Amino acid sequence: MAALYGERWKVETYLSHLKTGMGMDILHCRSVTGVLKEMAVYAIVYNLVRLVMIKAAGEQRTSVGSVSFVDALRWLAQGCQALAPLRLTIYPRRPHRYEPRVRKRRPKQFPLMKRPRCELRQQLLRKTVAA
Hints:
Blueprint: H1 2-21, H2 32-60, H3 69-77, H4 117-130
Helix pairs in contact: 2-3
């Protein structure tokens, strides 16, 4: 059971890499085809980053799970310095580390924008003129 929980944790970490590390938490396309294209591009880039991590792990003689995803992503974003040796951050294995599952920051206390910005501006101007 503990081994299955460990695997689940890895999957959640990989999803976190996609959502927060690569910015996939908010998709920008509005059509179904656009969203599918956007997700396909994220999948391609994610697989490319994982390939860089595999190469770095081989060169640094460590496991892929200990290589920094963000470092690999930044290395790719800098133009894949093919001539420079691939040296990414390696995180130590910490099997008995426990962290609470809480948010560090609370969401802002503003309502969501549900109408066009120009309508909201006009409404705000009417309130200030009436006061």
